[in-house]
Amino acid sequence: MITLDARNLTVTAGGRAVLDDVSVTVAQGEMVGLVGPNGAGKSTLVKAILGYHHLRAGQIHCAGRDMMRSAARDRARLIAYVPQAPPEGFPVSVFQTVLMGRTPHMGTRPARRDLAVTEWAIAQLQLDNLAFRSMDALSGGERQRVMLARALAQETPLLVLDEPTSALDIGHQLFALRFLSDLAATGRIGVLVAIHDLSMAARFSTRTVLMQQGRVLAEGAGGAALTPATVRAAYGVDAMVTELNGVPVVLPLAAT
Ligand SMILES: Nc1ncnc2c1ncn2[C@@H]1O[C@H](COP(=O)(O)OP(=O)(O)OP(=O)(O)O)[C@@H](O)[C@H]1O
């Protein structure tokens, strides 16, 4: 089983620690929800894992390899990334964009398998009818689904996603999160997903990590880290934490 193990990460920016001694692990079979208020450090953690930030301290290992010393192509065979904002002004087709996910596996031109995996990923995200549309001619939510398909086409054991459902309607949010959690449940992938919707996080995560001010405030199986006390401490919001029809619900009531 392949595990991503980020230990004691510290990142400084503007003279302060925006990530302060944070550890997180994700194994194949898990879907880890990363939650916390604006500025808590979720994107910084995600980007640090991908090697986009200089680490003041900490180590990142994946499949037993030191990610800080690995070549970009080797990292991209282990970890796929869906950024917070899908790129705009990108005049290439959906098919070509998803095919880019194959880059770490490809030679100078795509092999039959690269094309087959690209078609599969497009079909999984129900994008067939948009496959030859330009990225420039898509809505924000459609572009976000293409970025998910691109990450899927990368066929990595780990997926790291930064608010991948922020532009999606409730139907597509449910579809995307159900799809990711079902794929994780097969043991093929491990998922780390930064997400603002606490109910969705509690519902689909096998484990939730709640961050605040660059640190981990609470962590627990499923949505156990999300209690009225931790939600109040992290967000300054009184919330009801309950279940409706067996579905976890975190309902914000009032700012404290
Ligand atoms: N270059 C920088 N200089 C100073 N501070 C920075 C810099 N980059 C990020 N920060 C700060 O680091 C903190 C963490 O930012 P980050 O984007 O990781 O938060 P986040 O939890 O992803 O927030 P959001 O939910 O709003 O996306 C923020 O307070 C941000 O202002």
TrEMBL record:
Source species, domain of life: Bacteria
Keyword Phosphoprotein tagged: no
Record bears the keyword Nucleotide-binding: yes
Keywords: ATP-binding, Nucleotide-binding, Translocase, Transport
Gene3D superfamilies: P-loop containing nucleotide triphosphate hydrolases
Domain ABC transporter per the UniProt entry, residue ranges: 4-238
GO molecular function, one term: ATP binding
InterPro entries cross-referenced by the UniProt entry: AAA+_ATPase, ABC_transporter-like_ATP-bd, ABC_transporter-like_CS, P-loop_NTPase
SUPFAM superfamilies documented for this protein: P-loop containing nucleoside triphosphate hydrolases (SSF52540)
Pfam families: ABC_tran
PANTHER family referenced in this protein's UniProt entry, alphabetically: HEMIN IMPORT ATP-BINDING PROTEIN HMUV (PTHR42794:SF1)
Protein name per its UniProtKB record: ABC transporter ATP-binding protein
Organism the protein comes from: Roseinatronobacter alkalisoli
